[in-house]
Amino acid sequence: MRRILGLREAGVYYALLLLVAALTAVTAALGRPSYLSPVNLTNILYQTAPVAIMGVAMTVVLITGNFDLSVASVAALAAAVNILVIDRVGFWAAMVVSLATAGAAGLLNGLMVELVGINAFIVTLGTLTAIRGLVLVVTHDRSLMVGTPTALNAMTSFESGRAAGLPRPILYMAGFTLLIWLVLRFTTAGRRIYAAGGNPEAARLAGINVRGYKLGAFVLSSLAAGFAGVLYASRFGAMNPTALQGEELTVIAAAILGGTSLFGGAGSVLKTVAGALVLYTLTNGFNVLNLGANYQGLIEGTVLIAAAAIYTVGGRWRAPRLSADPPSGAPDAHQAQSQPAVL
Amino acid sequence: MSSLVQPLLSLERLAKTYPNGTAALRGIDLTVRSGTVHGLLGANGAGKSTLIRILCGATHASAGRILWRGAPVQWSHPAQARAAGIATVHQQIPLVGSLSVRENVFLGRSGWARSGRKERRRLSRLMGQIGYHLPPDIPVAALAIGERQMVGILQALAADAQLIVMDEPTASLAAPERRIVHRAIRRLAGEGCAVLLVTHFLDEVLALTDALTVLRDGAAVVSSDTAAVDEAAIATAIAGRPIHRAARPTARAGADVAAEIVGLRSPGRLAPCTFRVRGGEVLGIAGFLGSGRSELLQAIFGADRSALGVVRVSGRAVPRFPVAAVRAGIALVPEDRASQALVPGLPLWQNITLAHLGRLSRWGVFPRRGLERAAAAAAVRRLLIKTPDLDTAVGDLSGGNAQKVSIARWLCGPTRLLLLDEPTAGIDIGAKTEILDQVRELSAAGVAVILVDSQLKLLLEEADRILVMREGAIVAERMAAETDEQELIRLAAGAPGAGPQGQRH
Q1: What is the value of ipTM here, to two decimals?
Q2: Which residues touch B429 (CB under 8 Å, ≥6 apart)?
Q3: Which chain A residues contact residue B399 at CB under 8 A?
Q4: Domains of chain B, earliest start first
Q5: Out of A197, A202, A328, whose CB is closest to B48?
Q6: Which residue of A has its CA nearest to B198?
Q7: Which H helix or E strand runs over A141?
Q8: pTM of the prediction?
């Protein structure tokens, strides 16, 4: 029980509660409209949705021991493709084309990393730049707009419509998160994904298709980015070529706030969503309190490092208990895990 | 070594209790004299590692005294132990692969200025001291594991150590490399150094050491001159009970061919290999490190992506990748448990069920927790894995138990062909016996076993038939009953005059 409720295990939930409590108290003290009003909470969830969706898929990539910097560029490409084709083919076909484009980008990432063997950081740094360049090419560096009213209507109902009293993106986020959570938690694929990230060689020698899972994670990440791109395009019925630039860092920050390991084998999609909510609650708090937007980056960065510090120090603090009785041989295993760089 | 001379190191009633209440050492007395080799033995978990950690300053004793040259000392940092003259050669030597031999040997050197010429001269003197020479400028990553062991020893010497603690220096070495390390240890003692040698090899202890201490459950159960004890007495002391082996069932000659390997090869690693294994047969693979033994197993399992050729199990060709191999009933217990077998993030039971998870799942997709835990519990009981519970982190298990986990993994599904790569390396005699008994049981049940082991004696005892490998090719085949260690060494070395394993002169 202590393990489940401990700072390291549940820290991001505490942070979120603390943040909401603090903002509630401050807004109440200043006599502003209640922070906990349904309108405001719904608003935060709505704003979080695209990043949370990408963050959930990013978490899967991180669990498999890889890294995907290209998500924001892929999302922008999907948005651009969406708007370019929607007038001709209609909403759903445009959705399919956008997701296919994004999926192809993910496949490219995955093949470069898993078959050619280039480091994921380098590959996706490359595709981050190249795909953003492709966006500029296909948009001719101009803003794009949807022309036909039918398409615009379909987009609006997809993005701004409500179901069960909530804006739809919140439901998309909840559904996707739940699905991935269930897969990771309750299926053989989930177990194998954790194993493939935790020790790829051991997983491979246990007969697990490690490459397949890692490649699949890249495709999932890009598909999620593509979907976020469609959401973005649908929200405005337009996009400019620099849309979503830098958003990949928010996505990764959300996963890290959620305690996902950058070395693979550990991570939780629910905590990633909580991490994304922390980031957007901060943003929202700045707006509600009318603090200058100038401080925002500073505070967000500080929160991120503070969270990482808690996870790291918390891990070290727990370590002596874990290895309290090093039977001969056991320390070797620890060494092998914690010092991958030495022979 | 007269007893009038003050001992270099004495431990008096040394005890260590960890904060969680585990007593790792319960009052150990131990004396090491200059110019001698002192053997330290014990099962995994007996307290050897804790003792080493205290000696090298990585942890504190909770009671008792350490006398270094007669004066009580208390080290709070490994650097202090090193400065006093105690160097430790760890089992997994922390060397920097990208740096050269010379740079690694002098890695711990303080001061700003470094002179390549001086280091070179010093290094060649040190190499002369242990009677082993390595090219000083090649990167350590290019060295074989035995050569790295020598770099670790040179590192200890470069620090002017008077006591060198060696943690299983020969655990993963083949005979010729082992002989090199043995020679170095003897030279060191001859030069006046003291060596505290931790090992699982009883023949090594008998051949090399002057005195020995056996630990069991944190207490010294035997402290004696080596000349006063024999192998059986040591084995009994380590295990806490006499070790009995059941007679090995001989392979039935008429059994079906379980696996057929035809023209299996891998460019640059493995010359074409063709052979058959019958159900219930134990096929031993002899050969030195780097002779292609592990490569052969990896190729059979489909883990070597560039391997070509055909592997048939029960007459059916198996596609060349591990997923298909597992489905066909091939099981691989790899050489390096930590890096190739165990997944640190998963608890014990999930590590055990990892390979055959699909069989324990509904529709092959949804793991059934109850079935899984029952299968894991059965495997734990069958292999006598010592663990507090099924949820233990695999990193907390001792070496022998960790090895059992990587075997247990294959008991959860139907295994037709079991590939074992050095299954007993670095494992105490009790756990080793249990593992080998399990292998016998499996082969009695009709599983074909291919066993790679550097210990030829063990191969001769466990295998029905032995293939000898050299430079990536199978060079000879012998029935185990019709050959001996000398012949196997000769065949593996390819030199008709190659001598037997090092004896103490």
Answers
A1: 0.71
A2: B43, B200, B202, B235, B238, B239, B243
A3: 327-330, 332
A4: 9-239 (3.40.50.300), 256-327+448-496 (3.40.50.300), 330-413 (no CATH)
A5: A328
A6: A328
A7: none
A8: 0.77
